[in-house]
Amino acid sequence: MRWLHTEADRLKEDAKASGRAATEPASGDFAGFTESVRNVAGAVFNLGKSAYAELAHIRSTSSEFVLLDDRMDVVSGSSIKSIPYASIKKISLVKDKATLTLEKGTFTIKPFAHVVAGPLKVPIGWERNGLEAPYLLIVEEIAARAKIEVEVS
């Protein structure tokens, strides 16, 4: 989660630098004009990427799973959904997406974002008691409290 915040800040700084470069007086030839257009396009692109990273960070920090003794509360914005552990009949995990089959319906837990480095795609974790924890730990914790096994596909 910290990465999303720092990456958004870095992308904003890159966009500002590109924007400043675009407003500096360039030579009157066509090459100067195309360089200015390229700088403006880069600034817009970086602002879009920084906004997306910032949005993912805000969404990940404003949503939470509160694990209580008999149920979990899913807090998202202003809504709270309570899911009793006794109502969870099955937890199936496909890649990074966990589906909880309940007595009435299903509930899906998936990462808010991924960090991609070359061929690797790692889900962003979550925060537990002020410390960052791996994403799949929440699924294992819910399964342990519901006293069922996670089915991995």
Task: List descriptors.
153 residues, alpha+beta, PH-domain like, 2 domains, 33% strand
Q: Identify the CATH class of the largest domain.
A: Mainly Beta
Helix share of residues?
40-55%
Q: pLDDT below 50 for ≥5 consecutive residues: which ranges?
A: none
Number of DSSP strand runs: 11
Biggest sheet strand order reads 6-5-4-11
CATH architecture of the largest domain: Roll
**In total, how many domains does the architecture comprise?**
2
As a percent range, the share of strand residues is 25-35%
- Work out the helix count: 3
Radius of gyration over alpha carbons?
22 Å
Largest sheet: 4 strands, mixed
Structural class: alpha+beta
Walk me through the structure.
The chain has 153 residues and is α+β, with helices and mostly antiparallel strands. It folds into two domains: 2-61; 68-152, PH-domain like (Roll). It is built from three helices and eleven strands. The chain has helices at 2-23, 30-62, 136-146, and strands at 63-67, 71-76, 79-84, 88-94, 97-102, 106-109, 114-117, 120-123, 126-128, 131-133, 150-152. The strands form four sheets. The protein has a four-stranded mixed beta sheet with strand order 6-5-4-11. Strands 1-2-3 form a three-stranded antiparallel beta sheet. The chain is elongated, with a radius of gyration of 22 Å. The two termini are 27 Å apart.
